[in-house]
Amino acid sequence: MADKFESIKTAGQTKLSAFARFAWFAVAYNLLVILWGVFLRASHSGDGCGQHWITCHGEPIPSAPELKTLIEFSHRVTSLLAGFIVIALVIWAFRRFPKRHLVRRLALLSLFFIIVEGAIGGGLVLTGNTAGNWTPTRPYWTAGHLINTFILMAFLTLTAWYASGPRRLTFTAPRKVWVLLFVGMAAIFITGITGSMSALSTMLFPSETLAEGIAKDFDPDSHILLRLRILHPILSIFTAVFLVFLSDAVKKASGRVSVAKWGNWMSGLVLVQIAWGAATLLMLAPIVMQLGHLLLADLIWLAFVLMAAAAISEDDHDPVLQAEPLATSSSSEA
Fold first, then answer.
1. Contact predicate 89/159, CB 8 Å
2. By C-alpha distance, which of 200, 203, 115, 199 is closest to 151?
3. Phi-psi region at 199: left, alpha or beta (left = phi > 0; alpha = psi -120 to 50)
4. CA 275 → CA 178, 234, 270, distances in Å?
5. Residue 5 predicted with pLDDT over 60
6. Is 314 helix (H, G, I), strand (E, B) or coil?
7. CATH assignment of 169-322?
8. How far is CA 95 from CA 88, 105, 157, 298, in A?
9. Torsion over CA: 146, 149, 153, 159 (sign)
């Protein structure tokens, strides 16, 4: 047992390069930008610059901004900086790693999806799908935004992870692992989409009490978004149970320490998220609870990505989990 934990400790002592540290900074910074975007939506500030993009009310810099204009404009500035950070990440990756290296490709994919992220943000503004406005296309924009954000954060995280050690992507994992990871990814995406729809309906059709909100959910005359809102807590519970099961199954199938580590993190975060989600519902989703709810959702997704990456990669510094020896029964000693 002592040897097992000593090997785990040694494996975690690899010194990160300057590029790897910058890549992890890019992950953290983009996570903060995402959270600021949640605050933007929840505070009904998405129309702070009107239906103007890239300008704000037709001006490069707003001259007489309201509070919601400051919130919207600051989100655009932080998003622009996120783009420059990813551009720097790509340039550094091409200078730091050889041709056809995986980190180069992951950095380029990160750049592509952050450009798409900006385009989706601009599309939301130009089509008026912001603040308390409703259009029939808004659910599709919202779902597309969430999916692209998840993919962007996955590629940024993978760029940082593969740059942090001598790891190699392989396709030798058991078929069971691939199936579980695919189903887990689909479950997280579907649950995230229903969550974004639930948040949108709560913003567009607020309730004064929990009882009023539940009554709206089951009222046949309510908007379709309200009647579908009940799907999110139901799917969240099923997904939580499945992810805990998935974590244990993938850990046993791969037998790697890093898979177990990220799987345990994911399972712990899932349990916290269920409690946090229940509290958010009971408190009628105040902004601070919405921020925490989305932060936990993003962290669960990143833990899943890292667990999946560890399961389908080879790492010379990632020790294999050792099975505990079975206790010898007293009768066998006779």
1. yes
2. 115
3. alpha
4. 29, 14, 9
5. no
6. strand
7. 1.20.120
8. 11, 13, 19, 30
9. positive
| Boundaries of every domain in the chain | 18-164, 169-322
What letters, b where the CB count within 10 A reaches 16 and e where it falls short, cover 179-211?
Answer: ebbeebbebbbebbbbbbbbbbbbbebebeeee
Q: CA-to-CA distance for 278 and 4, rounded, in angstroms? A: 38
Q: What is the phi/psi pair of residue 47, to 5°?
A: -100, 25
Mean pLDDT of 155-160: 98
Tell me the per-residue pLDDT of 242-276, one tens digit each, with 9 for 90 and over: 999 999 999 888 878 889 999 999 999 999 999 99
The span from the CA of 212 to the CA of 292, in Å, is 24
Q: What is the 3-state secondary structure (H, E, C) of 38-51?
A: HHHHHCCCCCCCCC
**7-14, long-range: CB < 8 A, 24+ apart:** 7/257, 7/319, 8/257, 8/319, 10/317, 11/257, 11/258, 11/317, 11/318, 11/319, 14/164, 14/165, 14/317
∠ Cα 257 262 268 (to 5°) = 125
Residue 275 is encoded by which pair of tokens? 């409690």
How many alpha carbons lie under 13 Å from residue 102 in its C-beta half-sphere?
A: 18
Alpha carbon distance 205, 284 (integer Å): 12
